[in-house]
Amino acid sequence: MPHPIMFDDDDPVLARVRKVALELPDTTEVVAHGRPTFRCGKMFGNYGGGEKGNRVRHDQSILVIADPAEREALLTDSRFFLPAYLGAYGWVGLVLDDETDWTEVAELLDASYRLIAPKKSLAKLDGQRSTENP
Hints:
Blueprint: H1 12-22, E1 28-32, E2 35-40, E3 42-50, E4 57-65, H2 71-75, E5 80-81, E6 91-95, H3 102-116, H4 119-132
Antiparallel strand pairs: 1-2, 2-3, 3-4, 4-6, 5-6
Helix pairs in contact: 1-3
């Protein structure tokens, strides 16, 4: 039995996340477990999720693989949460709302992408970044 869809395709917050995530080279969007996921071979972003240890859902959130050096600091910030299932593998969640800093979202997705992307995709990203900032 497939998972129920747990997002609205017309969600404007999801549209902003898609724009940021899909600008990264070789990225695809795949619905998995009822939620949009962003991948470059492996998954580096997930839209929406629940907190580990309770039934609190954050349907407008982004889950990313945190830089191990920053993970604990991120989790001390009340905007972040330890996601169910993925939290045990180094992931964190960020609640998205009207106060969201979209530059921060882009940086988190970029850092997560860099942890999983193959070298050829990273080379494309770095080439893209160098042409944006001459």
